[in-house]
Amino acid sequence: MLVIFFLVFALHIVGVHLQKTAELKSNDCPRFDYEYKLLERLIRIEFAQREVEATLAEFRERFQTIQADVPRKLEDIRRLMDHKPKGFGSTYVRWGRTVCPGNETELVYKGFAGGSFFTHPGSAADFLCLTDEPVWGKHAGGLTNPALIYGVEYEHTFSTVSMNDDMPCCVCKTSRTPTIMIPGRTECYPGWTIEYKGYLMSGHHSQAGSTNFVCVDTNAEARSGGATDFNGHLAYLIQAACGSLPCPPYFEGRVLTCVVCSR
């Protein structure tokens, strides 16, 4: 500011001097007028430069403030992404088992796998996980021509189960969401957490009743006391059939695996 003051003062002095000189030497007016305007421009440039420097200093200060605040903002974002409110998550059925895996999961309920009879063409296709603690409503039974639900029997021997054993199940809750079943794999893709792995099973194509595909645990168990051949909803291991299914990557006759993953 002191420099500007002196420049303004100098401009004033020079102006007075030039004016008086011009009065004495009227023939030299153009030269004196040029010098006066040149000095005036220099002072204006000085003012403009000072304003630019002040603006740059203000921007630098703002940028430094924002830059210093970036780590805190990033930490806030990470904390929000990691924070999962209570109650959020997803559920899935673990077919063939009555306990949930120990990877931050909790048991919702356990029970028995159920579905429609394998020869009933108009029946529901779904596998259901029925609770082992049913609570009944007001209807006692005796309905005319009702729909029926049966237990699920394994139709192949694998793990510790034998043909005609009844299939148990449980419903598990995980804090991760979503949850998917991937057929044809025993490992999850990167970024996903494995819940359990197993074999793909369904009803048989020669039977009238429709069924869905389910992923039955590799270490499947049988329901205690459920080894009698009552039939019901039947579960078969599934083999690849090449043709419309490309081989490779699939192979004729290989049993399909599956994995349940969450993220």
Automatic annotation (TrEMBL):
Signal sequence coordinates: 1-18
Q: Does the keyword Signal apply?
A: yes
| Keywords from the named record | Signal
Per its UniProt record, what InterPro entries does this chain match? Ca-dependent_lectin (IPR051077)
PANTHER family noted in UniProt: PULMONARY SURFACTANT-ASSOCIATED PROTEIN A (PTHR24024), SHORT-CHAIN COLLAGEN C4-LIKE (PTHR24024:SF18)
Task: Write the protein's name.
Answer: Short-chain collagen C4
